[in-house]
Design goal:
About 50% of the residues lie in helices and about 10% in strands. With about 400 residues, it is α/β, with parallel strands linked by helices. Strand 3, helix 6 (about 110-120) and strand 4 (about 125-130) form a beta-alpha-beta unit.
Length: about 400
């Protein structure tokens, strides 16, 4: 490995013994460990957060396999490079040698590029090892997912991060002074991302051989939050906020709100969701909730971040603590189902508008009872086909 390469690449483990974390996945007697050690890996997709070990696992496979191992980055490669690899793989297959193709960030490939890969994975020309930070269910075509094993890598624990940092310090073999407490701090602030931890360590070493907490904080600036505004985590966290408010846990709701705002989410997006929540989950139990949510939405427009964070916090606490009533939400769902089932049912003649003489002659508005002045208990407002349907529980 070139000494000018990033430290994270120079110290990357070559064996499973040096790979820390992901015990469930590659622990003793696990399927994946056995497959790697026996050089019989299936096509697979490694799905996990940044710095969790996806590329490292791929490199360990490359180091241990007798197969031809080819790497591609989905960011910088395309269909042309893929077809060149496939042609070489066909030749290798004829002489009994397998080809393993590692595609980093496979979710970056579009459907056409993934489709081009599919038949060659299916017929065994290639063994695919794809790495992604995004949910394969959404970002990888279904046919490719169904022909691969999906292995989920978890965010690394602080304890695993400390082992990785200590191993890096030992390999670098420089006169570095760093306390156990500083290592713990670096592990915690790196938020489960081993690459971030090693890059921070490398940057710190370039400035001072004595690494203390202040230097680590200066390099990191702030703890880096895993929050991709366009990825799955975006939907996971807004779901957590919504469900925490629905369950009446204002403290948890505030935590998820802070995760989103400090991660750079647009406050307008959150405010829009709160307006929806005010009617969907609180509804008739407290009509003031919608007024507050709409006012906060307006405040977010006027102020922006960071000023509007307190308005959103106020609204989240209020919505969490408010009584809940889903009558309107469920009733609309029932009405919508009837619309879809029965189509465009005609409006009963007696409640139609009759602005012209012709319409009146055709019976529009005939026998309509003006409810402020007439008794209308027997007046029907539904189309004939669904006249007895009820959406709201009395």
């Amino acid at each position: 490995m070139n000494n000018n390469s990033p430290l994270a690449d120079r110290i990357r483990p070559q064996t499973l013994e040096d790979f820390f974390g992901q015990e469930k996945l590659i622990g003793q007697n696990s399927y994946l460990r056995s497959a790697i050690e026996s050089d019989s890996v299936p096509s697979m997709i490694l799905w996990g957060p940044p710095g969790s070990g996806k590329t490292t696992l791929a490199n360990i496979i490359a180091n241990l396999t007798k197969s031809e191992f080819v790497k591609l980055s989905a960011v910088s490669s395309g269909k042309k490079q893929l077809m060149e690899i496939i042609e070489r793989a066909k030749i290798k297959k004829q002489i009994g040698k397998k080809t393993i193709l590692f595609i980093d960030e496979i979710h970056r490939w579009n459907k056409a590029q993934q489709d081009a890969l599919l038949p060659h994975v299916e017929n065994g020309t290639l063994i695919l090892v794809g790495a992604t930070t995004e949910n394969p269910s959404f970002e990888v075509i279904g046919a490719l997912v169904s022909r691969s094993r999906v292995f989920v890598l978890e965010k690394l624990s602080d304890a695993d991060m400390e082992k990785i940092i200590n191993r890096a310090i030992k390999i670098v073999d420089k006169k570095i002074k760093i306390s156990d407490q500083t290592i713990k701090l670096l592990a915690r602030l790196s938020n489960g991302d081993a690459r971030m931890a090693i890059n921070t360590l490398e940057a710190s070493m370039s400035q001072n051989k004595n690494i203390d907490p202040e230097l680590i904080k200066e390099i990191l600036q702030k703890s880096h939050l895993l929050y991709d505004k366009t990825g799955e985590e975006h939907y996971n966290i807004i779901s957590a906020l919504h469900k925490s408010m629905r369950g009446g846990d204002a403290d948890a709701a505030l935590y998820w709100l802070a995760r989103m705002l400090e991660g750079g989410e647009d406050p307008i997006y959150i405010a829009r969701r709160l307006v929806r929540f005010a009617s969907e989950d609180i509804g008739l139990a407290n009509n003031t909730a919608l007024i507050l949510a709409n006012t906060v939405f307006d405040a977010c427009h006027k102020l922006g971040m960071p000023e509007c964070s307190v308005h959103l916090a106020q609204c989240v606490i209020y919505l969490s603590n408010s009584k809940k009533d889903v009558t309107a939400y469920l009733a609309y769902g029932k009405a919508k189902a009837d619309v879809e089932k029965y189509g465009n049912l005609p409006v009963p003649l007696h409640i139609r508008n009759a602005p012209t003489k012709l319409m009146k002659d055709l019976g529009y508005g005939k026998n309509y009872k003006y409810t402020p002045l007439e008794n209308s208990t027997d007046q029907e407002y539904f189309p004939e086909e669904i006249r007895n349907h009820k959406y709201i529980k009395k």
